[in-house]
Design a protein that fits this description.
Tachylectin-2, Chain A; 6-stranded antiparallel sheet; 5-stranded mixed sheet
Length: about 375
């Protein structure tokens, strides 16, 4: 999470058509997983962007998870503290309230980055990104060392019960000499997804570890059966297996850092957002891509995988928006200058009833930093745009 303000929820009226197909695949990133799926461009889906009336969600500094209960859509956004919005669809959100986090209210800098509503009993589960203060500098919040906790709610996320920390890097894996203004270690900036068999929750997030070999996008999993008491029961993906404890264990990145994050020219993918695309019948991951340790962005990337439980199955990320296109899409927006130029936190949210950030059809709203001025349409391999 980056500490910048987000302003207001509004709907504008942009109507100009814009379309864009996927850029050529960027294969060959340094240290990439040798098992990575290498598919010709002609065998991968493509996307097109079209201008749409503006939607803006207040204070977005991470993924914004969503769920339905009856005819109401709930969307959470966080900026050091989580808020809940609700309405009949993504274009008509309102009723913004501050969530109540119980004992967590005494902890600064909490983001609810992922949620999952249990269809059987209506319990809403979630996971939060927590940033402790004074990791390297006394009385300073930044730089920090994030870790992940688990929560649940019986009232659609108005109030939450903390179930403890579940994913954390080794505390001694810290770089107080880091060039990063944000993170000197830790794991966060993540998403979760429950598999179709309701056997495992899968986590994909970002590792800012002091050790270069453990930096980048990571994966972990937790048994669905452990959702009520998960601490100590989550396992990280390491060397091709779910073999390391998520508390202090090692990890093998799904998308390894290309250059050490803690140097000025650090480069890596980070901040994944994942949904199941019903039109493509595959999982889709959106990624930020940093080209220095300040997380300056060169573009937004996309990857596909038929099995969310197979971290090696993600295709090599392809750029769908470059830096100039990001800035054009966000020009004049009422968001922080840094987010305006970088387009952090790319995410899609479906427009139809039942669609969320987790389940999306052929066309959805595309968000960057909580701002949507475009729809995104997914096309099957070889399919022509309508």
């Amino acid at each position: 999470m980056r500490r910048y303000s987000g302003i207001g929820w509004a709907v504008g009226a942009a109507l100009v058509l814009v379309s864009l197909s996927l850029a050529p695949p960027r294969f060959g990133f340094a240290r990439d997983n040798p098992a990575r799926v290498l598919a010709p461009e002609s065998e991968l889906p493509t996307v097109e962007f079209h201008a749409a009336p503006q939607i803006q969600i207040t204070g977005v500094d991470s993924n914004s998870p969503a769920h339905w209960d009856g005819d109401t859509l709930y969307v959470f956004n966080s900026y050091g503290h989580p808020w809940r919005n609700s309405g009949p669809d993504i274009a008509h959100l309102g009723n913004r309230i501050s969530t109540k986090l119980g004992d967590l209210n005494d902890k600064l800098y909490i983001w609810i980055e992922a949620t999952w509503r249990d269809a059987d009993d209506g319990v809403l589960y979630g996971a939060y990104h927590y940033e402790p203060d004074a990791v390297c500098i006394s009385n300073n919040h930044l730089p920090t060392m994030p870790k992940i906790g688990w929560i649940r709610s019986l009232d659609n996320g108005a109030t939450w019960e903390d179930l403890g920390f579940i994913i954390e890097a080794k505390p001694c894996a810290v770089r107080c000499d880091s060039a990063s203004p944000w993170d000197v270690g830790g794991t966060g900036d993540f998403v979760i997804y429950l598999d179709n068999n309701k056997e495992y929750f899968y986590f994909y997030g970002t590792s800012y570890d002091s050790r270069f070999e453990e930096q980048g996008v990571w994966a972990a999993r937790m048994r669905y059966a452990d959702r009520k008491n998960p601490s100590g029961k989550v396992m990280k993906w390491h060397q091709g297996a779910w073999s390391e404890p998520a508390l202090w264990g090692h990890l093998t990145p799904v998308f390894p850092a290309e250059r050490d994050y803690h140097t000025k020219d650090g480069a890596m993918f980070w901040g994944p957002a994942i949904h199941w695309n019903t039109y493509l019948s595959t999982y889709v991951m959106f990624l930020n891509h940093a080209v220095d340790t300040k997380l300056t962005q060169d573009g937004i990337f996309i990857s596909f995988n038929s099995d969310v439980g197979n971290p090696a199955g993600w295709t090599k990320p392809q750029m769908i928006l470059n830096r100039a296109q990001i800035q054009k899409a966000m020009a004049g927006a009422d968001v922080s200058p840094t987010k305006l130029e970088n387009g952090w936190y790319p995410e899609v949210i479906g427009m139809q009833k039942g669609e969320t950030d987790k389940v999306v059809g052929r066309t959805a709203r595309f968000f960057m930093a909580g701002l949507s001025r475009q729809t995104i349409t997914f096309l099957r391999p070889g399919e022509k745009a309508p």
